[in-house]
């Protein structure tokens, strides 16, 4: 089959800092080079886009030499960490801005949902906005008219359709906007995390619609999201971006695995800056690290080895350990809980110091090869003190659990238990 | 994939830069429904939640005319070429208003549409054109006001108003004003995306432009030839003078002046569209 999209040597350079006299001087220099028929002098000096390190150049490559093809009818996921270049790539694909070098070629109309409700005017009624928004997305009046009832029905706001959208609840606003977008019928659709809107019921509806769009019409869809569950549900294959370059193109499962494991760079994860935690922070976890039986820090865990997970904490008071419940829960990448290790099934006699560490000891680590995420939970007197979901993840490498050099080969299994077989006659 | 030679039938090709004259007018035409929607939005949203609706468009020219009658006619006692003040001022204000609102509207295209431009692709030329068209609707309302006042003076008041066949040029004059406003607006908006210095001049330029155009005074009262040359170098001057001559029969109409304005408009419009087209592609990076 012919590819629907072909991306060749695509690069995008951005200049950092403010626009002012400094950039004006660069513009003049660039113009002077062009006049003399020379190459743009600033194209050579760009640096890789790594936010965390301070660079020497004012220019960074948000994307550098991207190459890939998307066959017609495929749903392609684009994943990568914040700043990997996903949004830049989508902006180039949807023609919001032009590339610095390289080209994109496509067959058919491209419509993009970088954000729903673009161009909604608050003073206009729902009806008027459907027509306006549809037209912005490239639909003709006829097309919108023929789908109008469907759109209103999908959004579920028939009663409000002749009321200005500024009176809408935010949920209703977003639903109407998504409904218009969902009824676009381009050959190529570009979607950026719009599914993160609305309530659970509407999200399901939205994913269903996306699936229908991609399966029914043989349409090509590019889908960007941080939500691995919806990526896994929708996409056939994925592109993994890292620091503005394509790290891999492969099937969804492989890429997700790679993405998750790529996030674990160090065996030690600091949690001080995590904002998505719950609880009153009477005891606060600051750091997580993994150790083997020789008390050496490890990056990945070997199946069957002795594992020590150390939580460094800070407490506001000395608490009796019997009143504290600390737990680590481990999930697989589908989000299914594999096991929890709550501390309150044992009795303790000591109390917790103001700071120190809590160690979880697992004598024989039972999980098979793969990437797993863990959640940390602490409560004091039955009040949540610190709760960090998906605090981090770790990679497990197959190891010699049974001391025989062999492991069970059944594909569905992810956990091992200690066992022996005996015979009696 | 397959044989790459067969793959060259692409519908969309995106490159860093487009060719100088690759204006993609075909695509603009395909998006004409969007143009209609934009015009509708601009026109309708202005008088939402009002009782009198578009009638409010009458207020501005009426008040301006009264103010001119008091300040320039009453206090400064400036000549109106023997015409009734109301008709004389209104004939200038209506057309100038169209020019100045369309010009300031289009020269803000990038700044005021950054949100939409940053999210969706459509031919960017649609937006400034829609501004010029929606201001045309406002103009139509105000032009009606002028015609009503004009007919009143023509038939019920003893004056020396002398309409002539040049009235037939009205649509041409309106188109020239529209083209001029669009072209200049496109140039200004292209210049101000990255460096906003020009923005500070704009309000001043428009105000100055009104005095450099024979609106509150007839062009033939200027005696100094240098000043007259300067005033007539302003492409709006001939348009206003022709308009006045056609309806009132006064002023110094000349075909040369009109053709000069027309040529000026064509050059400005082409330059505007080309610069806009060049800036438009990467405007989101610098706005």
Q: What's the structural blueprint in terms of helices and strands?
A:
The complex is a heterodimer of chains A (425) and B (287).
Chain A: E1 3-15, H1 21-35, E2 47-48, E3 59-71, E4 75-80, H2 86-93, E5 101-106, E6 110-113, H3 126-136, H4 141-155, H5 170-182, E7 188-192, H6 200-216, E8 220-224, H7 228-234, E9 237-242, E10 245-251, H8 252-263, E11 268-270, E12 277-278, E13 283-291, E14 300-302, E15 307-315, E16 324-331, E17 337-340, E18 355-362, E19 370-380, E20 383-397
Parallel strand pairs in A: 2-3, 4-8, 4-9, 6-7, 7-8, 14-20
Antiparallel strand pairs in A: 1-3, 1-5, 9-10, 11-13, 12-20, 13-15, 15-18, 16-17, 16-19, 19-20
Helix pairs in contact in A: 3-4, 3-5, 4-5
Chain B: E1 12-14, H1 25-30, H2 32-46, H3 56-75, H4 85-106, H5 109-117, H6 126-156, H7 170-192, H8 199-211, H9 225-233, H10 235-248, H11 255-280, H12 283-286
Helix pairs in contact in B: 2-6, 3-4, 4-6, 4-7, 4-10, 6-7, 7-10, 7-11, 10-11
GO cellular component, one term (chain A): membrane
Keywords (chain A): ATP-binding, Nucleotide-binding, Transport
Family (chain A): Belongs to the ABC transporter superfamily.
């Amino acid at each position: 089959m012919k590819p629907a999209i072909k991306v060749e040597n695509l690069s995008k350079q951005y200049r950092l800092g403010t626009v002012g006299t400094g950039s004006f001087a660069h513009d003049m220099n660039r113009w002077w080079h062009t006049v003399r028929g020379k190459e743009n002098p600033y194209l050579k000096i760009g640096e890789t886009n790594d936010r965390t390190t301070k660079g020497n150049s004012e220019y960074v490559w948000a994307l550098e030499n991207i190459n890939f093809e998307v066959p017609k009818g495929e749903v392609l996921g684009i994943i990568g960490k914040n700043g990997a270049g996903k949004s830049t790539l989508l902006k180039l694909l949807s023609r919001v801005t032009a590339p610095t070098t390289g080209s994109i070629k496509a067959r058919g109309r491209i419509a993009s949902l970088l954000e729903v409700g673009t161009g909604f005017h608050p003073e206009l009624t729902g009806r008027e906005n459907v027509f306006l928004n549809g037209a912005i997305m490239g639909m003709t009046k006829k097309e919108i008219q023929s789908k109008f009832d469907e759109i209103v029905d999908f959004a579920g706001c028939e009663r409000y359709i002749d009321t200005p959208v500024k009176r809408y609840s935010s949920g209703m606003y977003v639903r109407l906007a998504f409904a218009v977008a969902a009824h676009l019928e381009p050959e190529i659709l570009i979607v950026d995390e719009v599914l993160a809107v609305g309530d659970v019921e509407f999200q399901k509806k939205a994913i269903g619609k996306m699936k229908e769009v991609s399966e029914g019409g043989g349409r090509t869809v590019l889908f960007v999201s941080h939500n691995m569950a919806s990526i896994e549900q929708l996409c056939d294959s994925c592109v993994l971006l890292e620091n503005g370059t394509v790290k891999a193109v492969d099937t969804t499962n492989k890429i997700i695995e790679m993405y998750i494991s790529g996030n674990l760079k160090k065996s030690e994860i600091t949690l001080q800056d995590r904002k998505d935690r719950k609880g009153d922070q009477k005891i606060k976890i600051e750091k997580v690290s993994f150790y083997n039986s020789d008390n050496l820090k490890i990056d990945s865990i070997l199946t069957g080895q002795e594992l020590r997970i150390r939580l460094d904490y800070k407490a506001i008071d000395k608490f009796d350990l019997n009143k504290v419940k600390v737990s680590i829960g481990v999930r697989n990448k589908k989000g299914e809980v594999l096991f929890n290790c709550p501390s309150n099934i044992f009795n303790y006699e000591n109390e917790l110091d103001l700071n120190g560490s809590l160690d979880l000891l697992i004598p024989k680590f039972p999980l098979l090869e793969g990437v797993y995420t863990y959640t940390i939970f602490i409560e004091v007197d039955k009040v949540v003190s610190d709760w960090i979901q998906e605090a981090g993840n770790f990679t497990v490498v197959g190891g010699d659990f049974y001391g025989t050099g062999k492991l069970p080969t059944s594909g569905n299994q992810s956990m091992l238990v200690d066992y022996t077989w005996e015979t009696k006659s | 994939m397959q044989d790459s030679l067969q793959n060259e039938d692409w519908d969309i090709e995106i490159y860093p830069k487009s060719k100088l004259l690759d204006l993609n007018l075909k695509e603009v035409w395909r998006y004409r429904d969007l143009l209609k929607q934009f015009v509708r939005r601009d026109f309708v949203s202005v008088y939402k939640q009002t009782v009198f609706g578009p009638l409010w468009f009458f207020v501005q020219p009426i008040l301006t005319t009264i103010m001119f009658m008091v300040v320039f006619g009453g206090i400064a006692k400036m000549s109106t070429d023997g015409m009734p003040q109301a008709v004389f001022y209104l004939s200038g204000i209506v057309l100038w208003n169209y020019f100045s609102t369309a010009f300031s509207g289009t020269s803000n295209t990038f700044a005021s549409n950054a949100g939409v431009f940053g999210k969706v692709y459509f031919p960017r030329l649609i937006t400034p054109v829609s501004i010029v068209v929606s201001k045309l609707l406002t103009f139509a309302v105000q032009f009606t006001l002028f015609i009503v006042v004009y007919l009143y003076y023509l038939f019920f008041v003893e004056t020396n108003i002398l309409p002539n066949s040049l009235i037939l040029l009205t649509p041409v004059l309106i188109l020239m004003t529209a083209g001029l406003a669009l072209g200049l607006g496109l140039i200004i908006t292209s210049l101000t995306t990255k460096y906003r210095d020009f923005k500070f001049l704009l309000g001043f330029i428009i105000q100055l432009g009104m005095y450099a155009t024979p609106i509150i005074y007839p062009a033939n009262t200027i005696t100094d030839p240098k000043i007259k040359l300067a005033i007539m170098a302003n492409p709006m001057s001939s348009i206003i003078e022709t308009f006045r001559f056609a309806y009132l029969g006064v002023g110094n109409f000349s075909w040369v002046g009109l053709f000069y304005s027309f040529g000026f408009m064509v050059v400005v419009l082409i330059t505007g569209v080309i610069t806009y087209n060049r800036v438009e592609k990467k405007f989101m990076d610098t706005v």
